[in-house]
Amino acid sequence: MAAPAHDPSFGSLEPSFDLLGKLDQPWTAQMAIDLLPENNGPKVEVFRGSVIVTPHAGYDHQAAERQLSFLLHKAARAARMWAYPEVNVVSGDDLFIPDFAVLRRSGRGHVTMPISEVVLIGEIVSTGSRRKDVIDRPREYAAGGVPFYLRVEFRNQVPSLVLHRLIDGDYRPIVAAAAGTTFTMSDPFAFAIDPADLMDSEDDED
Question: How many angstroms separate the most distant Cα atoms in the chain?
Fold first, then answer.
């Protein structure tokens, strides 16, 4: 995938978040990778020329992301796929950081991965980003041709999973399950879980 062109003088700049308020042109995924420092803090994404900074969500979200990414990776490897939490996915000039993604090939040695390599992509819905996770992001993932979209939702701290398949350009739900039941999918690989297992249990505390 060719890197989007940008001003060659940018190559002399040191990566800094201070640049967010100084550049008066639309941002691209490549600009963000080149000009913004790597960090373990907020997500920094690019959508339609704008940089979007999102703080980490609450601990229920983080627990679900930790558990689901680990379990998905174990299942995906059996089908020669790779699952990762919060990785850089490039779609044209846009840069997305989904909560988790399953790739057709290993991301070893890569900073970004083109959306064409993503088999399944997912979001854990947060109160502050519900519209983005339920409407905006899936629309862009569908436009990028990602075959499957997996969404995790919480209702009164009770998790549920919904798997969507891309059909005629839109995601349609094909499997759903709430905590206390078993979520089972066969495509793009076999995977089963009780959504309740995504939550930290007080019984696990020291």
Answer: 56
Does residue 21 lie within any of the structural domains?
Answer: yes
Q: What is the CATH number of the domain that holds 84?
A: 3.90.1570.10
User: pLDDT of 121-132, one tens digit each?
Assistant: 999 997 666 767
What's the angle, vertex CA 95, arms to CA 152 and CA 111, rounded to 5?
A: 100
Answer yes or no: pTM beyond 0.90. no
**Do residues 79 and 45 both lie within one domain?**
no
C-alpha distances in Å from residue 1, one per residue of 90, 113, 136: 9, 9, 24
Each residue's pLDDT tens digit, 55-78: 888 889 899 999 999 999 999 999
Domain range for 174: 59-204
Q: For residues 134 and 40, state if they share a domain.
A: no
The answer to whether 12 touches 63, Cβ cutoff 8 Å, is no
